[in-house]
Each structure stands twice: as C-alpha cells, then as structure tokens.
Amino acid sequence: MLEHDALISEYQHDKSRSREADALQTLRKVASLVKPIMRQRGWRVGILTEFFPPEQNLLGLNWNRGQKICLRLRYPGDERQFLPLEQVVDTMLHELCHNVHGPHNEAFHNLWNQLRDEHESLIRKGYTGEGFLSEGHKLGGSTQRLPVREAQRRARAAAEKRRTLTAGSGQKLGGAG
C-alpha cells in the first residue's frame, strides 16, 4: 500500500510467526500514532520491522539513526500474544530518540520525555492515528462507471418502483386522526 506521506519506507514483520497479519497491522498502527511527531522533526525511517530477540528485556533497536528500527511486538514467553500497543509506541518513541542521541544520557532522556509528552497531548486531543490502515475496497455496484444519463434513468426507475410498491399503503403515523 502506497502512502501519501511515507515517513516510513517499508514495513517488515516475521512471517514465520503466528498472527503475522496482526503483526503488520500493529507496526502500521504504531507508525501512524507517531507520524505527527516524526513529521514535525523531519524524521524518516527506512524499515520498521518486527523482531523477537532471545534477550527477553530487549524491546527495540535503532540501526544507523533510523535506517532500520526493530520493535518487539510480542511477549517473550508467548509469541502468540502481543504487547500492549502503548508499550510498543513508547519503545518506538525511545528508538526515534536514537536518531538524534546515541547513548542513553541526559539529553536522550530529556528528548524521550518530550516525545512522550507530545504523544500524550495528541492522545488527549483524540488523535488515533492517520487515516485507514488498509488498502480499502469499493463497496457495491460494478467496477464500470455508468454514464450520467444511465445512472439518472436507473434512479428514476427505482424511485417509480418504490412508489408503486408503496401506493395505497401510506398511513398517518403518530396516532389517530
């Protein structure tokens, strides 16, 4: 799916694990929730990917200042269960800080706290992410576009059919008289 404002070039999920579609959806949702923060700072990420490292306490990695960001999406003890979305978003904010600061020093933590505050402000304002996270599908009708005159003719015919079907059945609603 092509994005209008692609701040993240590519999404990758672990196709060998269960619930792979949920993993991809989670990556897209996390990205959607932090995009205003990324856009404001001009940050881009090459690849946003799921990973499941053997180190149970490792939640994320940032390679080469955002060229690739890896996020743990699943519980270490049960790969079928996903971590809470807010925890993964916080890890994403942490990893984005590494686009500016390498070590976990005071400047890093100050930026991380600032990003957390900005994210919380967005959530309080009702922000739930950007647009739809699927490709979308046209509902109903055919894939061919009708000429305007034919669409009008069909609408008139449908209205006439409704009129004749309901003829004589009209009653005043809301009581007698």
Number of helices: 4
Q: Averaged pLDDT, please?
A: 87
Largest sheet: 4 strands, mixed
Structural class, by secondary structure, is alpha/beta
Tell me the Rg in angstroms. Answer: 25 Å
State which percent range the strand residues make up: 15-25%
Low-confidence stretches: none
Report the end-to-end length measured between terminal Cα atoms: 59 Å
- Written as H for each helix and E for each strand, in order along the chain, the element string is EHEEEEEHHH
* Assembly state of the chains shown: single chain
Shape: elongated
Strand order of the largest sheet: 1-2-4-3
Number of E strands: 6
User: What portion of residues is helical?
Assistant: 40-55%
Task: Describe this protein's structure.
The chain is of the alpha/beta class and 177 residues long. The protein has four helices and six strands; from the N terminus they run βαβββββααα. It has a four-stranded mixed sheet with strand order 1-2-4-3, covered by helices on one side. Helix 1 (20-41) crosses helix 2. The protein is elongated. The protein starts with 7 loop residues before the first strand and ends in an 11-residue tail after the last helix.
